[in-house]
Structures are given as C-alpha cells and as structure tokens.
Amino acid sequence: MLQAKNGEFMLDGKPFQVLSGAIHYFRTVPEYWEDRLRKLKALGLNTVETYVAWNVHEPKKGEFHFSDLADLEAFIETAQKLDLYVIVRPSPYICAEWEMGGLPAWLLAEGDMVLRSSHPAFLRHIEEYFNVLLPKIEKHLSKHGGPVIAMQIENEYGAYGNDQAYLEFFKGQYEKHGIDTFLFTSDGPVFIEQGSLPDVTTTLNFGSRVEEAFHTLEQYKPGSPKMVAEFWIGWFDHWGGEHHTRDPKDAASVFEDLMKINASLNVYMFHGGTNFGFMNGANHYDEYYPTITSYDYDSLLTESGDITQKYRDVKDVLRKYVDVPEDVENEIPTKSYGSVKLQESVSLFDTLQDISSVKEHLVPLSMEDAGQAYGLILYQTEVNRKGELTLDTEPIRDRAYVYINGKLEKTIYINDQEKTVQLHFPNEVNTLEILVENMGRANYGKHLTDKKGIIRNLWLGEQYWFDWKMHVIELDVLPSDYAGGKEERFPKFYQGTFVASECHDTFVDTEGFIKGNVFINGFNLGRYWNAMGPQRTLYVPGPLLKEKDNTITILELEGTTTEEITLVDQPKLG
C-alpha cells in the first residue's frame, strides 16, 4: 500500500518514487489502450493516471455506461497486465478541458443546484453515482492485489471554492465503499490552502518554477512528500487560437529539475487523445474560449499515438536516474484513402422528424430544461409584427443562426461585442427560427454553471414573445433518408462511402467546409471550424473503419465550396 512517511512515499514499506503519465481512457479508443500504455512503460514510467468523467458514465440520470470508451475497469486491467500501477482521479469534477469539467449536463435542470458544494441535492447525486462507480474501483485496489495505489479527492478545489464540508464528504464516501488506499488533493501552489484537507496529502499542479512551488508546499505543510500531480508538459488549444507547443528541451529541463530532488510526478498529458463527439469543454474568462476537438496537448505522444521528440528528450533525462526499458517503435501506421465523393445531401430542416424530438412551452427552454445535453436545438415561434425589430441576443448560448420566413438573416456568437441585432420582418405574420449550437460548456472557473440554448425568454421589439416550439437535436441519430428534400438552406448533411483497405488510422481533411461535425460509420469524430483554426483535420482511429462500405457523414452548419472530402495520412494542426 502507498503511504507518505517522513517526507517521501513508501510502497509496501519501501521507498517509492511515483513516475506517472496521464492517459484518459475516454479519449482513446479501447483497441489502442495497450499501445499507449506500452509506450508509457517504455519511457521509464511505473504508473498511469486517469480521470473518471461522470458525464461519460451517467449521461442521463440513472443510466450508467461502463463499456467501450467508458470501460474503466478494462483500462485498469490493461495497465495491470503491463505491470503498471494506477492512480485514479474520480469525479465529480475533473476540469481536463472536458465538457462541463466532467459534470453531467442534467444537473443544470435542477433550479436550486449548487455545483461543487455541500448542497444536499448535489451530494445526493454524487452519492448515487458513487454507489455504482466506487465498487468498480475498489475491487482493483492494491489491497486486493490490484494496481490502484492512490485516489484523488475532488480536483483543484482551491481554485473554485472553500467548502470544507464538501471535501470531507468524499472521505466519508470512500470509507463507506472500502476505498482503503492513499488519498490526496491537488491544486496550483497559490490555491492549496483552500483546496486541501488537514489529514490528506497535498500535491501540486504546475509546469515550471519547481523550487518556488515546493517552497510554497513546505511552508503550508512542512514535511510533505514532493509530488506534482500534474506536471504540465504542454497545453491545450481553443478555436481561433494558435496551436500551443512547448520546446522539448525546455520541458525536459524542468522534468530533470524534478528528478534531481527525487520528486514524484505525473506527466500531464503523457497522451492527450481526442475530444470525440461534443465532449470538448471551454474556458470562459474575458470571453468564451471553446476547446478544439484534438486534445493533442503537445504531449509526449501525439493525438494519434506517435512518439515525439519531447518523449525522446524526457527519456534521455530518465536514463540518468532510473533503469528504463528499450525503445519501442511506432507500431500503428497511417494511410491516405484519397478523396471521397459526398453523393447525397439533405437539409437539416428536411430531416427534423427523424432526428429530433419536439417540445412546446410558453417560453424558450434551455437545452438542459428541455432534457438535452449536446448538439443543436431549434426554436420556432410566430412574430405578428411587421418592420424592423431589435433582438436582445444576450440569452443565446453559444452560436445561433436566425431565420425569418425560412431565410438566414443573422449569425450570432456569444463573443459578439454587440448584444443586439436588427431584424426585418416583412409580413404581418412571420416565422422566426433560431438554431442554436452548444459549443461546449465551461470546464473551469466561475462560469461552470453554463446553460446552453436560449436560457431566458427573448426581448424582441421591446416585448417578450411567448409560445415556442423546440426541436431537440442531439445528433445521436443521423438521417436515414436523403431523398425528396425540399429545403436548400444550411445546415446540410452530406454523405458518401469509401473503401479502407487494412483499416489504418487516417485524418479527415475538412478543407472546403466551414463548420460542423464529421461522423464515420455513425461515430461522431468531433467538430471542425475551418474559419477559425487551428485544427484542419480530424483524427480517425483505424478501429472505427471497415475494409468496405464505410460511411462518412458531414453536418455542415454554414456552407461549403466542395462536395467531396479527403482522407490523408498526416494531421494539420497549427
């Protein structure tokens, strides 16, 4: 069992240096878990760390998923097969640039909910979730011969709140479920006082300034073992920003600073992976910054699992301090499958009866209040006024397309400086439609309670408008019929088929398209936004492919200059 004693870690009574790397099982297809873990071990690390994303495992209240990408136990067992230890950082909150920091969207449908606090309703939901989750982890603890040697209490809580009763609640839950293992909290150095517990080991999260960070820890908790639970080896990207990179020599130099003082560490991220589907989060500070689909993170392995120069430089450092295994080769090839003609297309408006459910209400409902987590929601009402009317756009989250009598009039984005738009209604009675895209809920900070869609009734022409119809479009169902469509307006679905001999990894080059999502054989690869960048391709893991009859579906929201898509063998990022 792992313990902290006299300023160092002990495992089964012997001094132990935790050398860990972060891999999130839900960001990598299960067929590749062993590949990524073998490369982690070949670097010289002895432990893998993973978050647990609540919204992956309980996407709807009371509906639990623990298979495929969500098979936490299979991931732990794969690590044990390779003689790796495991650190688990369970929900409820993980940050991780993941949708709503891992919290399920359905929490926001409860009006009095206070997230990340000892509010009774929030604790009740966690307890009901933990009743399912924690027994799955408990059986893999080291006391049973399993690989799990440590678990975290909450996550970077000092950067959010000061509710000590909330943190104590987790200790009670762990005790209730027999989680008799090493426990810790983690925070940035300036936040450790509010995020720590007196009798639980405090660890740090940082990317540089090692001496300064551990000096802060020593001042707060003298004699604490030196552990950086997140050594930030790179950084994440947002739409409209640059692709972040960190010089490999610089990262390796700080890594060596940690090794010189025999600190324990967890490389964040060893392998970043992909925000498949709608699972990217967002940061919301001065404005809203949605995270891109790729979670490459400039990690030691690329998004598709390739070994980087940074990996090699860090391994050169490790060789000086520990015995490291022989080098491994990149074993997973990529392939270009060329151009795919998208021979079928249909407007989203012609498919609504197949891909959406309908709700009617006196006022617009937010996505959450309509029972929706992700995707798009279409609001419809009648405006029985003629002429120019001013619309207050502040309640719209995050990006919206405004149609009057079937014609696109305005595109609205949460970051628009001007929060009103002028709309012209030509008839005595007009149909107003507003199609809203949730681009990812905030995963950090004060905007964590981040409802989507239209979150309050709209003030249009100096009055509120009542009686709305809403089409909930989660995009868990795609169109089955592309024939007979009458609409020409976007959004549109495009579809084609292709052959993928050998089923190697590939990348969808979205040049010619503007904004939307790509699906391979029904699997949502994620978002693209070529007008913003920095991501220009979407990663397609080979296990998603078949040798024949692969279907590629694109939902293009805004427009396109082409009706074909290209599958290439290298990513375009930056």
TrEMBL record:
What InterPro entries has UniProt attached to this entry? Answer: B-gal_1-like (IPR026283), BetaGal1-like_ABD1 (IPR048912), BetaGal_gal-bd (IPR048913), Galactose-bd-like_sf (IPR008979), GH (IPR017853), Gly_Hdrlase_35_cat (IPR031330), Glyco_hydro_35_CS (IPR019801), Glycoside_Hdrlase_35 (IPR001944)
- Glycoside hydrolase 35 catalytic domain span: 8-320
PROSITE patterns tied to this protein: GLYCOSYL_HYDROL_F35
Give all residue intervals belonging to the Beta-galactosidase 1-like first all-beta domain. 364-473
Gene Ontology MF terms in the entry: hydrolase activity
Q: Which keywords are on file for this protein?
A: Glycosidase, Hydrolase
Limits of the Beta-galactosidase galactose-binding domain: 491-550
- Similarity comment: family membership: Belongs to the glycosyl hydrolase 35 family.
Record-given protein name: Glycoside hydrolase family 35 protein
Q: In the record, what lineage is assigned to the organism producing the protein?
A: Bacteria, Bacillati, Bacillota, Bacilli, Bacillales
